[in-house]
Amino acid sequence: MNSLDRKKAIPKLLGDTDRFLIISGLAGTAKDIGFLTKESPNTFLFGGAMGGAIPTSLGLALARPNDTILCVSGDGDVLMSMGSLATVATMKPKNLIIICVDNALYLETGGQKSHTGLGVDLDVVAQGCGFPNTMTINNEDNLLKATTLVNNDFNGPTFILLKVNQSRPPQYSRNWNASQAKIKFRQNILK
What we know:
This protein is α/β, with parallel strands linked by helices. Helix content is 41%, strand content 19%.
């Protein structure tokens, strides 16, 4: 069983979130990032579009090569868009970091065991797709090592598998007005 609590591990791993353009997957990771950033203008939280975070982050990384793009998504969302991992690896955006927060559950739909709870290793999948930088974090020591991967310049896309226990994400009531969220994010990147 993984010992990391998402409410502590994610802020420790990310540090200063203002240095990224952040795309969050839905459900738990939207709560994680929404709570951490208070939906600052550099964040866009997905809701109801499972599998959309990685392809959107790839498009943003290609369009904004001078910005560091951070995609924070859950295991269910990444499983939904596994083909996107192959596309990211072949496109090779140097400015894209994908963090998969893996609790091995489909928490949003009732807590059913996800494929990662049945043996699928998304770090191995990312490696097989050709990601030059991958890492699994499943304890405090690995978490500290991974902060250097997030904080340093790197060559090519990075995939980090953050294995967390089954604790719930922080309580956070987000803005569900998609038009407002899109406009706020767009205005921020067009400054």
